[in-house]
Amino acid sequence: MKIDCVELRVLQMRLLKPFRTSFGIQQDRYPLLVRLEIDGRSHWGECVAGEGPWYSYETVETAWQMLKGYLLPTVIGQDLPDVDALETLFAPVRGHHMAKACIEMAFTAALAEHARKPLSTFLGGARDRVETGVSIGIQATVDELLEAIGTHLSQGYRRIKVKIEPGWDVMAIGAIRERYPEITLMADANSAYTLDDAAHLAQLDRFGLLMLEQPLSPGDLVDHAALQREIRTPICLDESIESARDARHAVRLGACQVINVKPGRVGGFAESRRIHDIAANAGMPVWCGGMLETGIGRACNVALATLPNFRLPGDISASGRYWAEDIVEPPFVLQKGGTIQVPSRWGLGVRVKVDLVERLTVRREMIRQ
Ligand code: OSB
Ligand code: MG
To answer: Best label site of 28, 145, 278, 310, fewest CB within 10 Å?
Structure first.
């Protein structure tokens, strides 16, 4: 298959509610979309990079530069029989996995469409529904936190993840446990702690959390391993795992017991699959995280989460949790039992609302050979 040209766009989209994590607060999201033209057909992808370098060093701006300056010129006009060929061409560019991932995922969806298969089955998944949870940001007060949790439980979400940071951790989790002793609960620190906080974090052990996500710095696999020896709560890694190699090292070191796989963070579906397999061979479950995606990235996450070792509910919430109107049709909705239905149409499985995308676009450029 030959990618004839690629259109890059940045949209401006307002989240229904501001989302606060230990690294900042976000109300407007600026998703970078790519549209691959192959044989006169459009194939969409979404880059998960944020506006600033807080979650990762990658940003919307760096991804745009990498795509335009280095990644797209190597692939446009080339005959690419499979994803291997694409990965080989991208390999000389170090890092920048988010920039690479949006092309890899759009290209994989194109291959799936060409093979007349839904993306999920093309990837080797078998489920028609995926279990989902919700990620709740840091709130101004405990009352607001409890109310937000209550709202999502009543909507049917079965696993609650809350963001924590120093000053909003043991007290907040304790209050949740008092109100909701039985819910499946976990916390995500987005690297807000250091190993010096081990004794403090051990206080979370009494709350029976499903896991504690990314307590320490992304590069700190060794310290995560040391922390895991000090706390009973299973550690899950998110930011630390940018590649299959990181997953292999984390497993070897005992730095985590669970991995949050985000295809948009690790370079795409093929690398996600490798991480999935490394974890499976180590008897370690994985789950699919989210990056406040539009329906395009969400469709990719849903498809990936159908693979067998995705054994825990993901952060793949319904479109309506993020946006007044999603840019895909049909939007993702929550089904009974806290699941999301896997699209059965060929390829990405959802239709992009091009008119809406056009209205939301704040920057665009066509990249040709
Ligand atoms: O750490 O998982 C994270 C959102 C943006 C950046 C990082 C993270 C998140 C979330 C939200 O937790 C997940 C989602 O609902 O998309
Ligand atoms: Mg996280």
So the answer is: 28
